[in-house]
Amino acid sequence: MADDRLIVALDVSTMDEVKAIVTSLGDAVSFYKVGMELFYAEGEKTIRYLQEQDKHVFLDLKLHDIPNTVAHGVSSLTYVGANLITIHGQGGPVMMKAAVQAARESAEKLGVERPKLLAITVLTSFDEEAWTATGGQLPISDQVIRLAKLAKECGMDGVVCSALEAKMIRQACGKDFLIVTPGIRPSFATTDDQKRIATPASALQDGASRLVIGRPITQAEEPREAVRLIIEEMESLSK
Ligand SMILES: O=C(O)c1cc(=O)[nH]c(=O)n1[C@@H]1O[C@H](COP(=O)(O)O)[C@@H](O)[C@H]1O
């Protein structure tokens, strides 16, 4: 049966590929992430399809703009009906508060459940060198914790960060704050373009609520077997 702490990233661009992955994983996976590659190509029907298959949906479009634009973007996404959506924490407190208010108001108006809002902190593809090159002044972990606390103060439901930062965020932001960690690499997988990585078991041990995993599953020769191995790793140390 599925472990809903695992979110599989559908980083593909056609409905045919989506259907092939979702069909082959069957009841082993209950939560999927739709990102920009898929949503820009196929739009809302990706969400509808996953809902028809009784799957939870994380719609990861990483909104980042002025508060008014992001608030209206969030209202539109509330209508789409995803369970989780992402906005950039770097958009700042006014933007995050406007997003939270927009999600609440539009969900009330539509009579639907409000999507949970996650703040992107520092992408897991950053290492210190690349981070400094963008002008980052604080070490990455300090920047992540700063954004996590700010996101919480603004009423956001949680953050996306590396599992390497999960422990300190759990301590600082409490047990109900969602900590969603990509950059997860099970023992059998390659690193790809990820820099701040962790294994499934250590991520959960350090307090991650959910793990986002893409290529180690979707590009595996046997995706269902990859999921089985990952769930085994998740359950080996996390209980
Ligand atoms: O928001 C995300 O999901 C995200 C944030 C981040 O910091 N790092 C990151 O890798 N992601 C996403 O998580 C997924 C990771 O995919 P894999 O590297 O293939 O496991 C991709 O869909 C990324 O867009």
From TrEMBL:
Q: Which UniProt keywords apply?
A: Decarboxylase, Lyase, Pyrimidine biosynthesis
**A GO BP annotation:** 'de novo' pyrimidine nucleobase biosynthetic process
InterPro entries assigned: Aldolase_TIM, OMPdecase, OMPdecase_AS, OMPdecase_bac, OMPdeCOase_dom, RibuloseP-bd_barrel
MF GO annotations:
orotidine-5'-phosphate decarboxylase activity
Instruction: Check the record and name the PROSITE patterns matching this protein.
Output: OMPDECASE (PS00156)
Pathway connected to this protein? Pyrimidine metabolism; UMP biosynthesis via de novo pathway; UMP from orotate: step 2/2
The entry sums up its family as follows:
Belongs to the OMP decarboxylase family. Type 1 subfamily.
Its subunit composition reads:
Homodimer.
List the protein's name.
Orotidine 5'-phosphate decarboxylase
Tell me the classification of the organism that encodes this protein.
Bacteria, Bacillati, Bacillota, Negativicutes, Veillonellales
